[in-house]
Amino acid sequence: MKYMLMGYVDEAQLGTLSQEQVQAALGAHMAYVQALKEAGAWLDNRRLVGSSTAATVRLKDGKSQVLDGPYSDTKEQFGGYWLIEAPDMDAALAWAARCPIAQHGVMEVRQVWAPSA
């Protein structure tokens, strides 16, 4: 089964990290992705550009409205994802707990919907 691991972080807190802390975090993420790959669980992952560059689109009365920024104000912002293959939710949760983001933010785990044939 496919699972999406979504990482949420406080972007303001990230901006306070030293260069050494940034390099350590990048190294931890590279090691995490390598572990996923070696286990045959990795399918894809991407980091997102900061939420200040985001836009929200909504339809109102049949017309689109484009707003700056994320839809809701939250402490943590969606910062990236890992698409993995895992036998069940417990295994996906175990991978999420190993993600370096879990130490500084929040990991959301959701099974990818697969329509029945």
Characterise this structure.
With 117 residues, the protein is α+β, with helices and mostly antiparallel strands. It is built from three helices and six strands. The chain has a single domain (2-111), classed as 2-Layer Sandwich (Alpha-Beta Plaits). The protein has helices at 11-14, 19-38, 89-98; strands spanning 2-9, 42-47, 55-60, 63-68, 77-85, 106-111. The two termini are 15 Å apart. The model has no long low-confidence stretch (mean pLDDT 92).
Quick take:
It contains 3 helices and 6 strands, in the order βααββββαβ. With 117 residues, the chain is α+β, with helices and mostly antiparallel strands.
What attributes does this structure have?
alpha+beta, single chain, 117 residues, Alpha-Beta Plaits
How many domain regions? 1
Shape: flat
Strand adjacency order, main sheet:
2-5-1-6
CATH topology: Alpha-Beta Plaits
Q: Kindly state the mean pLDDT as a whole number?
A: 92
Structural class by helix and strand composition: alpha+beta
Largest sheet: 4 strands, antiparallel
Strand fraction band?
35-45%
CA(first)-CA(last) distance: 15 Å
In the CATH classification, which architecture applies? 2-Layer Sandwich
CATH superfamily: Dimeric alpha+beta barrel
Rounded radius of gyration (Å): 16 Å
Helix content: 25-40%
Low-confidence runs: none
CATH class: Alpha Beta
Question: Topology, please?
Answer:
Elements: E1 2-9, H1 11-14, H2 19-38, E2 42-47, E3 55-60, E4 63-68, E5 77-85, H3 89-98, E6 106-111
